TrEMBL record:
PROSITE patterns: BULB_LECTIN (PS50927). It comes from the Eukaryota. Keywords: Disulfide bond, Glycoprotein, Signal. It comes from Tagetes erecta (African marigold). The keyword Signal applies. Residues 33-164 form the Bulb-type lectin domain. This is Bulb-type lectin domain-containing protein. One of its GO terms (biological process) is recognition of pollen. InterPro entries: Bulb-type_lectin_dom, Bulb-type_lectin_dom_sf, S_locus_glycoprot_dom, SLSG/EP1. Residues 1-28 form the signal peptide. Involved in sporophytic self-incompatibility system (the inability of flowering plants to achieve self-fertilization).
Length: 443
């Protein structure tokens, strides 16, 4: 159809017809036969899916991706894309979702209308989520075999794509952009699909992971790509998870971050992992625990199709799991990826999940003090410089004056100071110049 219209336009005698044709393009609509409304009702699916959820599969499907409603708590559904095939019998996973933190109920609808807008509405008609693409030239909807769900115009250009609104997952081909989608936010828990405290962010000079404490407005840095790859000149403009077959060897497939910088414009790759099979079906996930992992899906194997191919904070890696803020719960000492002790005012005791700080409820400096730990670092220290050089007494008085400060960390060899608004996991570093002072009530 498109080619015949071009033909009409190029024949110069048919001005009038040509004009009419253009005005009809500007009002392009979705053919009625391609519109849909799916209602969240009926029986649940039979297969095992991530988070032990119930789900209802909807018709939009492109192997191995399918649009579904799922719920982990009764009558609170998320519209999501599921990855995995029935045939592989492996757990199917949720790789994109529309309405985290804003669930819908039974009889909610997802509608693609002639105006080209895709709308998720609750049973009472309240619009919960939409693509905001009404009358923008959208003529079609598609779930692509890459897991990208798109609304495209008559020329095939994407007016909207799910790849531009990641939650905690990046599929191969999905891109972070400066000034665009540039971060993942963890899920709070398997059951509770709201934003968790961790984020993974593309910044001008690299990638970072942050923990957002309820005690502090400022997120705390617990990982940075700085030791792994650095942007010496310019700043990152975009970064894509890419699968690259090794053409020399022929049987290796690399998963990489392919990135571009501006000022100057340059491109580069940083390999993350490789497999001996085609790993185009892979994703990067910021987990509930704040760790970042890469999973591949190999539909050709018998049995478990998923493989965890890379963990950023791994017990076998340089970082170790001790860099994970929540590794040892609310308060614990970590060594070689293990939780080894509970630091208390009267010394170290055995670690348990219940280890916690003694809460200081008063802001009066006469009502609290500090207890000292030697050879210990906070998770934020590895990638931040702290303040200084400064005297330890100044570091302490800064913490004392700040009700929200839970303790401070001080390196005597470099006279640097860190104020901690949350403690979580401390790491044993075996360096007596690294000191921690934890606030505790006097009685
Ligand atoms: C959903 O809608 C149908 C048809 O209108 C109705 O029979 C059913 O009771 C509704 N379900 C719920 C849970 O409200
Ligand atoms: C990334 O940026 C480069 C340079 O600005 C551009 O050529 C490229 O198309 C961009 N890639 C994506 C996937 O947006
Ligand atoms: C890898 O698989 C994808 C689809 O799953 C396919 O498009 C691509 O051509 C495959 N690559 C190679 C090198 O076989
Ligand atoms: C302690 O850490 C400092 C740097 O922070 C380093 O120069 C020094 O060698 C370390 N000492 C030991 C015993 O590891």
């Amino acid at each position: 159809m498109a080619s015949s219209s071009h033909f009409i336009c190029s024949s110069s005698v048919l001005f009038l017809l040509c004009f009419q044709l253009f005005s009809s393009i500007s009002e392009a609509v979705v053919p009625a036969s391609d519109t849909f409304t799916y209602v969240n009702e009926g029986d649940f699916g039979d297969y095992i899916v991530e988070y032990d959820a119930n789900y209802r599969a909807l018709p939009p499907f492109s192997n191995p991706f399918q649009l579904c409603f799922y719920n982990t708590t009764p009558n609170a559904f998320t519209l999501a894309l599921r990855m995995g095939t029935v045939r592989s019998e492996s757990l199917m996973r949720w790789v994109w979702e529309a309405n985290r933190g804003n669930p819908v109920r039974e009889n909610a609808t997802v509608t693609f209308g002639t105006d080209g807008n895709l709308v998720l509405a609750d049973a009472d008609g309240r619009v919960v989520w939409q693509t905001n693409t009404a009358n923008k030239g959208v003529v079609g909807f598609q779930v692509l075999p890459t897991g990208n769900m798109v609304l495209h115009d008559a020329k095939g250009k994407y007016i909207w794509q799910s790849f531009d609104s990641p939650t905690d997952t990046l599929l191969v081909g999905q891109t972070f952009r400066a000034g665009g989608p540039n971060k993942l936010v963890s899920r709070l828990s398997e059951v509770n699909n709201i934003d968790g405290p961790y984020s993974f962010v593309m910044e001008p000079k690299g990638l970072s992971m942050y923990y957002k404490s309820p005690n502090s407005a400022r997120p705390m840095l617990y990982w940075s790509s700085s030791e792994w790859f650095t942007i010496d000149k310019g700043s990152l403009s975009n970064l894509t998870v890419t699968s690259i077959p090794d053409t020399d060897e022929g049987f290796l497939y690399y998963l990489t971050f392919e990135y571009f910088t501006t000022n100057p414009t340059a491109s580069s790759n940083r390999n993350i992992a490789y497999t001996k099979y085609n790993n185009t079906l892979s994703y990067l996930r910021l987990g509930i625990d704040g760790n970042l992992r890469v999973y591949t899906y190999n539909p050709n194997v018998q049995g478990v199709a998923w493989e965890l191919v890379y963990t950023f904070l791994d017990r076998d890696s340089m970082e170790g799991e001790c860099q994970l803020p929540g590794r040892c719960g609310k308060f614990g000492l970590c060594e070689d990826s293990q939780c080894v002790a509970c630091p208390t005012p009267s010394g170290l005791s055995g670690w348990s999940k219940d280890c916690d700080v003694k809460k200081v409820t008063s802001c009066k400096s006469s009502e609290f003090g500090y207890y000292k730990l030697e050879g210990v670092d906070h998770f934020m220290i590895k990638y931040t410089r702290g303040d200084g050089p400064t005297k330890q007494s100044d570091c302490e008085s800064k913490c004392t004056k700040d009700c929200k400060c839970m303790g401070y960390f001080y390196h005597t060899d470099r006279s640097r100071c860190w104020i901690a608004y949350d403690l979580k996991t401390l790491t044993r570093v075996g360096n007596s110049t690294h000191l921690a002072y934890i606030k505790a009530p006097n009685k």
